[in-house]
């Protein structure tokens, strides 16, 4: 729109449209970055939280 001067109402409507578009982009990218993953868990890998009392069964003596 070269040389066209927008009315305040048109400018507000244009800015609202731009905000809506940017909000949709942010939502999309946020879901891509932090959304649910389809990663599979390897059942052969041991868990960090498995109970294994054979190691560190006694507290370490310090000072």
UniProtKB/TrEMBL annotation:
Pfam families: LZ_Tnp_IS66. Residues 43-63 have a biased composition (Polar residues). Residues 24-52 form the Transposase TnpC homeodomain domain. Residues 42-63 are annotated as: Disordered. This is Transposase. It comes from Lactiplantibacillus nangangensis.
